[in-house]
Amino acid sequence: MVWLPVLTPLIGGVVIAALRRQQTAARMASVLAMVATVVAAATVAASQAAGEWTWGGGLDLAVSVTGFGRIMVILVPLIAALVLIFAAANSEEDRAIVKLLVVLTWFVAAMELLVIAADFLTLLIGWELVGAASWVLIGHEWRDPDRPRSAREAFVTTRFGDLGIYVAAGAVFAATGSLQYTDLAAASPGWLAIVAGGLVLAAAAKSAQVPFSPWLFSAMAGPTPVSALLHSATMVAAGAYILIRLQPTLSMVNWFAPVVVGIGLITALAGGMVALAQQDLKKALAGSTSAQYGLMLIAVGAGFTAAAAGQLTAHALFKSLLFLAAGVALHARGTLDLSKLRLGSALPRIAVLFGIGALALGAVPPLGAAFTKEAVLAGAFHSGIWVGLGTAVAGLLSTVYAGRLHMLGYGPGPIGEIHGSPRRGEVTALGILAALSLALGILWLPGGDAILEWAADGAILATTRAEIVLSWALVALGIAVVAVAWRRGRLVTLGLPSRTREFIAGWWGLPSAARVLIVDPVSRLGQGLFVADRKVVARLADAVAGFGELMSRILKRVVDRSIDAIVWGIGAGTIQGAEISRLADDRGVDGAVEGLASGIGVAGTQSRRTQTGMSYHYYTMMMIGLVVAIAVAAFWR
Amino acid sequence: MIDILLVVAAGIFGVGVYGALSQQSFVMIMMGLELMLNSAVLVVVTFWWGTTGGSPSGQLMVVVVLAVMAIEAAIGFALVTAVYRSRKADITEKLKRLRS
Amino acid sequence: MNPGPLSYVLVSAFGIGAVVSGWLVFRTDSMLRAAYWLMVSFVSVGAMLVVLDAQFLGLILILMMSGEMTIMAIFMIMFMMNPAGLNPMTMVHQHRTSIIAGVGSFLVLAWVGVMAEFPNLPATTADPTVDLGEELLGRSMLIFESAGVALLAVMIGAIALVAKQGRFGDAYDGSQEPDIEVGTGSRT
Amino acid sequence: MLTLAIFVPLAVAAITLAIPKRHERLARPLAIWTSFIPLIVVAVSWARFEIGTGFQLVESLPWIPSLGISYTVGVDGLSLPLVALTAVLFTVSIVFPVDDRGKARAYYATFLFLEAISLGVFLSLDLILFFVFWDLSLVGMYFLIGVWGHGDAQRSALKFFLYTLLGSLALLLGILGIYLYTNPRTFDMVEIIATLPVPAGGLAATLIFVAVGIGFAVKTPLVPFHTWLPPAHVDAPAPASTILAGVLLKMGTYGFIRISLQMLPETFQRYALPLGIIAVVSILYGALVAMAQTNLKRLIAYTSVNHMGYVILGIAAAGALGIGSEASRSIAMTGAVVEMVAHGLITGALFLVSGSILARGKTYELDQYGGLAGKAPRLAGITILAAFASLGLPGLAGFVAEFQIFAGTLGVFPWLAAIGLLGIVITAALFLRMIQQVFLGDLPVRWEGWKDLRRVEMWALVPLGALVVIIGVAPAWLIRVIDTLSQVVARG
Amino acid sequence: MTAQMGRAAVDVLPVLIFAGGAIMLIFYVMFVPRALQVWSALGATVVLAVAGFASGWYLGRAPTITFFGTFAADRTWLWGTLIIVIVTVLTVALSVEWFRSDSRQGEYYVLLLFSALGAVLLAGAVDLMELILAMLLSSVTGYTLTAYHRKSRAATEAGIKYYLLGALANGAMVYGAALLFGLSGGTSFADLRSGLVNADPTALIVGFGMVAIGIAFKLGAIPAHQWMPDVAQGAPAPAAAFLLVAGKVGALIVLMRFAAVLPDAAVGWRPLVAVIAALTMTLGNLAALWQDDVRRMLGWSSVSQTGYGLLAVVALGRSDLAIPSMLFFLAAYAMGNMAAFAVIVKLRGLTDRESYRGLASVHPWLMGALVVSFLSFIGVPPLGGFTAKLLLMGAVIEAGYTWLAALAVVNSVISLFYYARVMGPAYFGPAARPRPLMGSLAAWAVGVATVAVVAIGVIGQPLAAAWQELVLLIG
What we know:
With about 190 residues, chain C is mainly α. Chain C has helices at about 5-25, 30-50, 55-80, 95-115, 130-140, 140-160; strands at about 165, 170.
């Protein structure tokens, strides 16, 4: 029963795959599967069920739908359903659409598993599957060589974060012998700190926080529905979600709050500026995603998970709306360059819907997003005045970039050439999302706090009047800035020097830093090791090689000068010794690197030369042997 | 007395070794080998006479050594003949087919 | 035991004679002469045996070796390049090594002879020749038999190797490896 | 009954050789059907295996009782899964089509011989019997690589033989060392494990440990004893690579558990940390060097070094008595064994796939390929499945193993586990790059006529893929069996 | 005395059968026409069979020292005799066609019997004189057998080199024996054991060293190993097979007995044997490495095998495994060597390594036998060589010479290389054309020897049980 939110899309995917010959049916099936998942999720959420799947050896996969999970489990398929409606309506000629639909459905299944996970193993499974599915989704158009590369970058980056979950799971297990969330509290402080570290790492990577943020840009290589889904309620949401879920226990670690708040604040500011500086609509939205999740992390760090949860929900709704609308823009103009869009006149209906999303992104009251943002702000001020001010600046940034994106993307402008107009299904999806964003405004009603606290199973801080004033003032300021810039025609460039702008827009140089600091060294290390592997390690056995070499040389000298040389007294022996040591010195290092095998081989050649064919040599050897034998028998016990 | 005898035997043995090692001709080598055995005879008799109280084994051993000398000489001559016939070789240096 | 002074003199004289004549074996230019020097060496040892009361063994040694040396001399004449020493020549190799080996062997063995303590066991019987007879045909029958078998074997072997003519004509007929390819005559 | 699994293939191998030349084509069906007999035996054994501890289904006959040598076979939680793996891999490898160079009888006979030998290694409960099979596996593989390999096969085969023979003889010294401590003298593994005859702590114990350790490290292989592996894999025919990676490498890790750990537990405990460090070096080294490869098969070969490093890490953690909790050590051991099975299935599939690619493209160079996913969706699908399993994706077998290994090791050697985890990221990067280079992007014009997998190839590959998924999703049936071993080992 | 003599004669019945049979065979050879000469092979076989049965029957008798302390009629000797008998029978089988063209083939079998008798006497000798004579008998017949192809340049060269080496070693040994006689007052090992306890160590060590050189020559151990490759290459192939093996059987057993006599405190015989073993196996293997002549390669590998065999001596008195390991080694090595040479004989003496390329396809059974014998030499289970090596290494480890076992391991690995230089091309090369072969007797010899190699390993229990409790009688 509790597995239904996972199984339904899983089976749905299979059904879609089976229907690949009937495209229409497949598209219908995909939407139906999502709707069914929503229903299943709602049922499960209502029953608050729990379940287990035994692996053996003391490992069980535990799931339960509790806390904020009740909301997430519904939110994920809900948004996915709308995205699928959009996707199914799109591009009817595309045969690969079925593959996309199948993977999207399975992607939802993975995300649902992540959401309902009640232990770290299940969490890790969902977590990694989401990442892997994102690889397929981002690389959907695999014939273009660049897209698989982007997919790989995204996957590898997030997988690095996954190590955090591995570490966390191992630490929990080491500390308690169990992987359950509920047992986490029993862990000793040391282990708990490791768990917290792992989870923060994983969450930061998944939620595209600094320094992992750039993977979101790579993720833009995927088709529009993919971006819409990844950036809203799934994938990116996973990081914030798990922190919300486990915050009560993790906050027992004393550095947890400052670190999370710090990451969130830096990302909110840096990401905001990226969004502001970007020239590409989708990438600007991606930057804003990082920033928005930064806000959620601030709230989690501050201890007000309900605020974070509310922000997450609101963001999921408006960001999917914005991405889908961006997809429409791409379809219409064939580009996402912000200086070339301005579709307001060409696609007025979409413009309105995008506007609603932009207003939510800008946290303009009375939208629900504004309420949650202010709750975040309140939390931030609670944890410190500088945090609060920083968050306020981040909020200002969000208003400015939201306005900028709207004006440049769907603002008034020449109708120009339109390649394709949105289909009915697409508009429907956008409409529903916009409606939901608007509907979230009910949070402003009295009792909104309580609803949030109930839904998120966490705390929220009532906003003080001063904060509201500050917040609203900043919103107004932001709008004013946008208006002024628009008027002056500087909204595209913001008046910044292009190199500075590009630096910021390119995520503050983080991708190239990663390339220079991590990717290149690692691959060069690999290359170097490979060369070493062929040239050195294959002959590593040759610590001994010096010996083999030396022995063969001795043999060589011995035989070259015939056996007389040895017999002929110590003088000759000394000269021989000197000769040998000179040779050894000359060839020293070289000799050591020579293969043991070749050393033995040479020794073999030399050994044969003792068999000179001259019987008097044998006689001499025998006499020497006799002397040596007597010496050994006399002096060695 | 025993000292003298043993030194003499050692001398004969040494000469034999020298001969066996230094001579090229097979027959000359065999002479060296015979000298070595000859010295062994002297050693055995020395001990038989001097230290072992006339142990009969000593005498027998002399006979055995004599037999060894005869047998080795006989087979040696036969082989030298055979080699000479097949290889026209009478010195060790001429036999270099089998080596390394 | 208890040798008189004469014994000392005789033993020393014959001993020096044996060693020197042995040395001369390898110093002459003629192989024939070498063979006779070798015989002198043997005879000297035989004489020493006689001095040491082993008359029977001494005589056997002398007789056997005289015969053997005669054979050896014949061999010289049969095979050797320079049987009569008409062209003085030395045929030696690794001379230095050989000297070291010879001198070394002498020193080691002489040192053993001089320095080592040998036991002094009580005397057993009176007549050594009777002893020998009893030993040969009595207690050491197996050794005697082995020596006989070895002599027999070496006779057969020597004849098999050397005889040119056998009962079936050419004794060398077919004494070689089989053809590696039948009928081609090619061998390893 | 277990004896059947060894001797039926052996007998049929002899029969196969005796087939007249004109009936040569009978060899293949005969071999395929014969290879099902061990499978059946395994299935029955699995059904009759009672969860508990100790060796079961033991069959014993005196062999050379004067020397304490017996013919004893049996299974426990360690050997049963490996025997099953062996049976499965041999069946699919025999099914997999290969260029037999006109020596079909010899090829299939060698394969059946090797199957019997490999099963024998895992089944035998007598050190000498174990060693007999162990060494014969080298001989079989030597001929398999040498006769049916490509490239510089003779050299690679010899290198393989020389290296692993050195290892196996070192192992023999170690075995002798153990034997000389038993009283009365015996090679009986069960008894040695029960009585632990080698006194702990002495020089002798260390020497024995090092000797057997070298033997297993060469076979496993651990860095720096791995250099025989890449050439052997590259030049071997695909089914032989599958067996080499899937079965023969497991013998090394099996030995680490069965002999190093179970027979010398205290010594093992003392050297667990150094072993763990070597394992981590292997993990990272294998992954990094694999990343630098341009040759498909060499890449897979180096990932084997990486994966066997995981196994050894798990074993080292499991054997580090006194450090970490019992649960951690137990789970590490379970993970190590599951990894053996998983790696066998996954890498086996990857090598078979590489054989299919070589048969069509005549080269292993990755940059010669591209965009094949469109032409060969089945090939691409199976490769991607195997690659993802290899990089440890949940839902597939590799993850089950790696998770347990790391979760367990973290409780024992936290730093080693943390460093070793980096290997997971690197393998992800390299496998994705491999997929990208072969299957995605532009299709070179010369591969326009590329054919997808044939049915017979699917017959070999699909079972492997299915098992990988089954173990990934529902491993309880497997872990339950392995757990009987882990419990014992972890308790010390 | 006569009654004693009679009993003693009964004690060594196999010896008498050998000697008597050989003498009867002489008469046969002397008087039958050439066409019937070939049947002397059958005569030799009959003699060997009778001697073999007698030895087998005697295994049930109580071991005894006979002939007044000169001969040990114990089970080790009997087993050694049995190995020699089997080797000789196989040699006869290989020789029939090989020597069919030789007008003197009859004497060949006589000499073969005498040579085998020498080895048998050697295996039972517990007296220095008996040791010297047995070795001489074995050697002089060996020289003759080596040079038996009188027309062959290689054979006569090998013969005289073998002789020269043997004569020097023998000279040293006789002198050494004389010294030991002087120290102990007797020549039997019993006398030596009692007489040498407080003997002067200098003389003892020198005497021991000189005797050891003589035994080393027979074994083919350093520093008197040089004859082995020459004989293997130059001698008639069946004779080479015999000579590499038979003498070694006797010499190893007698070395055991001789070593057991020596006082451990005064003479470092154990380290000496260990050093000789180490050098011998290493040099043999290294020199075999690049041989392109398969027979010569086998000769060098025999040198290295001698080194392995000496491990048993090193462990003497310190490990129960010493004697079983020696017998397993002798049996496995003898059969392996016979199998390898039998294959060569079957291929009409084919010895160039290149000629073996691709032969596995056309002569699978022959190459299979060759591979079995090679693998046995390497020590791959379950072949006889493995059991031998297992016990040898076990014995030396127990004796405290672990380094020697490790060296043996390294050497085994090296040896794989040169065996693979023959096996590899034979199996991995393109199919060659079939080679002309010898007749069916050689095939039988290949089969018997190969089966024996396998059987010694696979059904080793009867042997292990029989050899486990063996003691060496030394009087």
